[in-house]
Design brief:
single chain, about 70 residues, alpha+beta, two-stranded antiparallel ribbon, 2 helices, about 20% helix
Length: about 70
């Protein structure tokens, strides 16, 4: 049972950002402003919801945050 699930969520910092599409053209990033979390920051608080791919890119698995909400 997650008895204090909301506590780490309150530590997360929501941000707006733009992908570095010009630096990584093969990633097919969207040019639109994004809303989300910075994976490296989330990893320090809730590492279970961050994945690192073969290229070293980190991503937040937002669906895994739902049980904490």
């Amino acid at each position: 049972m997650l008895t204090t699930a909301l506590a780490p969520v309150k530590e997360l910092r929501g941000v707006t950002y733009n992908w570095k599409a010009n630096e990584y053209p093969t990633m097919n990033f969207d040019d639109a402003k994004q809303v989300g979390l910075i994976a490296q920051e989330v990893e320090k608080i809730i590492p279970e919801v961050v994945e690192t791919d073969k290229g070293g890119f980190k991503s937040v698995q937002y669906g895994h945050l739902v049980p904490l909400l």
